[in-house]
Amino acid sequence: MFRTVLKAVAVAIFVSMGTVSFAQQNTAGSDPKMSAGTPAPAAQPNGTAVAPAAPAGNGVAVDAAKPMKFTSVTLHELSPWSMFLAADIIVKAVMIGLAFASLVTWTIFIAKMIELSVVRRRLRAALGMIADSRSLAEAQFALGSRGTVLSSLLAAAMREGRMSAGISSDAGVKERAASSFSEIVRAEARRIRLGMGLLATIGATSPFVGLFGTVWGIMNSFIGISKSQTTNLAVVAPGIAEALLATAIGLVAAIPAVIIYNHFARVTKGYLELVGRSSGAAGRLLSRDLDRTHVSSPRPANSRAAE
Q1: Distance of alpha carbon 122 from its chain centroid, rounded?
Q2: The whole model's pTM is what?
Q3: What are the φ and ψ backbone dihedral angles of 297, each rounded to 5 degrees?
Q4: pLDDT digits (tens, 9 = 90+) for 155-187
Q5: Which of 103, 126, 289, 301 is the most buried (most CB within 10 A)?
């Protein structure tokens, strides 16, 4: 008995819910404003009725038989290559210049790494070869045909000793030889630092060049916004992204240039210390040769006194 009552109550609730939902659908479908303003379908000669024009939101009638047209915003592919192609000619020139500067940076890095490693190894080996040499002639014979800065220093010492033959002042010979050594060391320093000034220039100016491209691109983007009279993010984002790409390329060119410059400054300093050691070694050999010359030469005054 109790189960029968529960079933009857459930059926009644279900029926009442269906009735209410059906009434709401009928109410929503028959809008009095729409039905009042909608004319009756006109009859055609062949007996067919034409659907009336449905009023639009602004009061303009829209033909119901025509399909609705939807406008969609064209989506831009925001890849670096597509942004480069879509950029302004000035921004493109900035990007190409920065890419070329980055290529120059890595070219200098590879070339200087090879050059510095080779000259440091050769100069260390040359210093080891003349460590036991007693004279300039022995040192030149030990080096042979090795083309290092030490060979140039020994040759300058030999030339000064030959040109100063017959001069009794050893201080003058050493001073002139030291002057020649200084010129050779300065020339070697200029040669080994070749390209580092370009690295410093790229590292200092690339961020500002990229910033110029960004400012130019954003200015063009704002001009486009004013012409299109829209602030839709999908419309203005590609232009701003193209402008910011110039700054990114500027940083890509500048950061490695600064790091490579600092690295080569340390390595070059170590190499120039080896060059200074080579200059000192050549000066000591020249001093020994001068002392041997005076020891082996006879003393005329003493010989006369002995007679």
Answers
A1: 33
A2: 0.65
A3: -80, 140
A4: 999 998 888 777 767 788 888 999 999 999 999
A5: 126
